[in-house]
Amino acid sequence: MGISLKPKHLKRYKDIALLLIKYGRADIVKHAGLQDALELDVSVETTPGESKADELAQDLEKMGPTFIKLGQLMSTRADFLPPAYIHALTRLQDKIDPFPFEQVEAIVSGELGVRISKAFSEFRSQPLATASMGQVHRATMLDGRAVVVKVQRPGIQEIITEDMEALEDIADFLDKHTSWGRRYEFGKMLEEFRRSLRQELDYRQEARNLSTLGANLLEFPGIVVPTPIEDFTTARVLTMEYIHGKKITELSPLTRLDFKGADLAEELFHAYLKQILVDGFFHADPHPGNVFLTDDHRIALLDLGMVGHITTQLQENLLQLLLAVSDGRGDDAATIAIKISELKEDFSETTFRRRVADLVSEHQGSKMDQIQVGRVVLEITQISADNGLRVPPELTLLSKTLLNLDLVGQTLDPQFDPNASIRRNTEKILRQRLWKALSSSNLLGVLFEMKDLVLRLPGRLNQILDGVAHNKLKVKLETIDKDVFIEGLQKIANRITLGLVLAALIVSAALLMRVETSFRIFGYPGFAILCFLGVGGGGLFLIIHILMKDRTSKK
């Protein structure tokens, strides 16, 4: 059974089919019936490797914005692609020719409801940067503030909608008719992709991201995040303060002498640990092109279209994982990875633990300042995929973030040691997590629960006491054989009773030792000695009874 082709998507079907053929999945094209319907040649041979992975990144760039973003999503799925392809897609370049200023002017005026000349005292026609989703222009507000205006590319939403329809047709067919699709669940992957694109196409969401991250990083004076101008921001136009600076990759050796790179790298790494492990909200794309050094020697974090969210429970596990990796504890790292992942039917725990232990010990033998934590975590996710573990996408996104962060840290200070930074900042992170748990909002939640408990407790106690008084209290037990259960209870009760009797005899014997009498045994008061002998005999009987009866029951 072949896929049902929609005429308006034929070009995209062909592009996707050619991509699958080129990279070794001609079997899917044949099975879907695309070979005959689109008259395609499926005899192309492929050879895996770094060069082929780089070609995939280039091919996705040529196919347009939807596939560039799809490539970025695929780079977070270590269970789906080999390592070479993951690294290549991480380096995807999102650049394209600018669109005319007349269109920029029309979009800005239409979104803001006023001509550009009325909203800005200056608006430069030459774009500062361009990308497949939009482009950025320098401008000056009427009050003199320097800003940048990000304008969404015209027609981009329609292009993405059509591409998504074609991708969903193919994904639906693969999920229903191929083992490959059932294993990777492309429908769910695309649904996640659709949500991500929907947020990225709404610049108001990016403005909220900027505000949230800026508030979360107020305690770091060496880091700055652009402030959005809310009154001049819509779904297709984002206005934010202009931060003058240079990409850290463009810094000259002479410029590096003007600031303390080690201090900046340490503060940046601490800030990211806080974002990931305390706030649960982090800038997920800190590649060197998005990290600037400002004129006053601070670090500026730009472009918050891609952010990550991490739950509280996952934060705790990730903190333990990072500590295990930085301390060289491979078995602990494997245990945590298993804990946070979804087990598949073909999961091989022994092989997985051995490979993780080998990986961590291999890096432990290196110099500490040569270890890239992000790369180690990424390799752990790839080992997980090879051995039947489906790690949460947040873990792969975290590893990519840390990998980029390692590169930024090394650029700021070639001697920067990310492992040592993790260990230095662990105590601060734990303290911040504790204070967050004790925040007013969390305490209010606990107080509300206590209020419900206090209000409902008297009524529930009355119900229990009434049930006891009227002999209506019942205990529901689910057991295979109730007679065996009752017999066990009787044994417990009998042994407790016998134990109490023996204890009473010991106390009595001790008291009788003080009573003078002519009846004596071994020179001691006779009644006391008889009690002690009774206790000894009873204890011996109880021990023998337990050993014999319990052994019989086991048999």
Could you walk me through the main structural features you see in this protein, from its secondary elements to its overall organization?
The structure is a single chain. The chain is α+β, with helices and mostly antiparallel strands and 555 residues long. It folds into five domains: 7-93 and 159-184, no CATH class; 100-153 and 202-242, Phosphorylase Kinase, domain 1 (2-Layer Sandwich); 248-438, no CATH class; 439-474; 482-554. The chain is 61% helix and 9% strand. It has helices at residues 10-22, 26-31, 34-37, 50-63, 65-74, 83-90, 101-112, 116-119, 156-177, 179-184, 186-200, 203-216, 253-256, 261-279, 312-327, 330-340, 349-364, 373-386, 393-412, 418-437, 440-469, 482-512, 526-554, and strands spanning 120-123, 129-130, 134-141, 146-152, 223-224, 237-241, 245-247, 281-283, 291-294, 299-301, 307-309, 342-343, 389-390, 520-521, 524-525. The strands form five sheets. Strands 1, 2, 3, 4 and 6 form a five-stranded antiparallel sheet that branches. A four-stranded mixed sheet has the order 5-10-9-7. Strand 9 (291-294) and strand 10 (299-301) form a beta hairpin. Helix 4 crosses helix 6, helix 14 (261-279) packs across helix 20 (418-437) and helix 15 packs antiparallel against helix 16. It starts with 9 loop residues before the first helix and ends with a helix.
